[in-house]
Specification:
about 400 residues, alpha+beta, 6-stranded mixed beta sheet, 4 helices
Length: about 400
């Protein structure tokens, strides 16, 4: 071949590239007048067709150069990595937001009226079950107990003497019964006052941490008025409201995947602890609850969590990473590497029918075949028909 003709072939891709650029610039200059959205979409579609056709011609010319022994075409190969499509198990998970709740959480208050005399704990302090956390002023009750104790001693003496006389058939039975009744009544009254004295001492209901103190010493405590909040964070409930449409796929003791957005590194499979038996009529949901050990107390009540549960599963499906799937005006597609007649790989755009997606993976219903090499690295640099250089052994697992 004459050298001038060979040079012309070598320069043809670049001349076409310049021609594309001039054409696009001319098109933009000629169509700066505003138009409706449909007109703009038609223009974009037409330009894409032109680019695709010119790219195809460039590839054909490069192939001719390669057949003539010119290695410059091989230098235009795009390095890529691929994933070999195979049949894999696939599960579709539904993710819902959840809320954290302490299993043991109590806002304690006094059971009787009285002035707060002592608050024996501080915020953040750990307490044990039965430990005294506060006490009320008990001076009035203590005075009443002393008074009744004195009366009880007197009543006891009178009762014993009257009983001795009655045992000897001396005196009347009425006097004996009155003395006995008076003694027993005072004993009952003394026990009542002692119980009231005990109520004025406020104790922790379980082991935990004092998270908040709502009152101060000297203030008046009333039954039902919050005094302090005590939490035990060793075990937590995580609650989620699930649409009733998923009732058929959720069963007791199924495993769900628990995550906390505040701790991206945490992911754990846990069994369902409880499924609610009532549908909320306002939002048509039921309660799903899991029980989680809280190591190091790092999870807190009212934290946001997510629960993912399996809504669909199959043992055999074609699956690709969702991030590889792109979209144009014709639909969703991926780039695959396919051989031409000379055994060299070129990028091909393959349109797909997608199925369910979950956890960054998408099930493919139609468009791909077992063994297809989906481009996983370098897919953003390739176009239809461009030569590619595979740099890895085709993987069969989702990368």
């Amino acid at each position: 071949m004459p050298s001038k003709i060979k040079k012309l072939f070598n320069r043809t891709p670049y001349l076409l590239f310049i021609g594309i650029s001039i054409l696009l610039l001319w098109s933009c200059g000629a169509e700066q007048q505003p138009g409706d959205a449909e007109s703009l979409r038609n223009q974009i579609s037409e330009h894409k067709k032109q680019v695709g056709e010119l790219t195809r011609k460039i590839v054909e010319l490069e192939e001719q150069l390669r057949q003539m022994g010119d290695s410059s075409a091989l230098r235009n190969q795009i390095p890529v990595e691929v994933h070999a499509i195979t049949s894999l198990p696939f599960s579709h998970f539904i993710k819902v937001n959840a809320n954290v709740e302490a299993v043991k959480e109590a806002t304690i208050s006094s059971e009787t009226n009285g002035q707060i005399k002592h608050i024996n704990v501080r915020k953040g302090q750990r307490v044990g079950a039965g430990q005294v956390v506060a006490s009320l002023n008990t001076s009035v009750i203590e005075s009443g107990i002393k008074e009744v104790e004195t009366s009880v001693e007197l009543a006891k003496t009178l009762y014993e003497r009257q009983k001795n006389l009655w045992d000897q058939k001396i005196g009347s039975e009425v006097q004996y019964l009155q003395a006995k009744n008076n003694y027993e009544s005072l004993q009952t009254r003394l026990k009542t006052l002692q119980s009231q004295l005990e109520l004025s001492v406020i104790r922790a209901p379980f082991d935990g941490v004092v998270d908040e103190i709502f009152t101060k010493e000297g203030e008046l405590a009333l039954p039902g008025l919050p005094l302090m909040q005590i939490l035990n964070l060793s075990t937590l409930y995580v609650n989620a409201d699930i649409s009733e449409s998923y009732l058929p796929v959720i069963r007791p003791n199924d495993e769900v995947v628990l995550r906390f957005p505040a701790y991206p590194d945490f992911e754990k499979k846990v069994k369902i602890h409880r499924i609610g038996n009532v549908i909320n009529p306002e939002n048509r949901t039921f309660r799903l609850q899991v029980l989680v050990p809280n190591i190091d107390d790092r999870f807190k009540p009212n934290m946001v969590a997510t629960i993912s549960f399996k809504a669909f599963a199959t043992d055999s499906a074609m699956v690709v990473p969702s991030i590889l799937i792109k979209q144009d005006i014709q639909g969703h597609f991926v780039f695959v590497a396919r051989k031409n007649g000379n055994g060299e790989f070129y990028a091909r755009k393959v349109y797909l029918e997608r199925g369910l997606d979950s956890e960054g993976k998408t099930m493919i219903i139609d468009g791909l075949e077992i063994g297809d090499l989906v481009i996983t690295q370098g897919q953003n640099q390739v176009t239809e028909g461009i030569p590619v250089l595979i740099q890895n052994e085709p993987l069969t697992q989702i990368p």
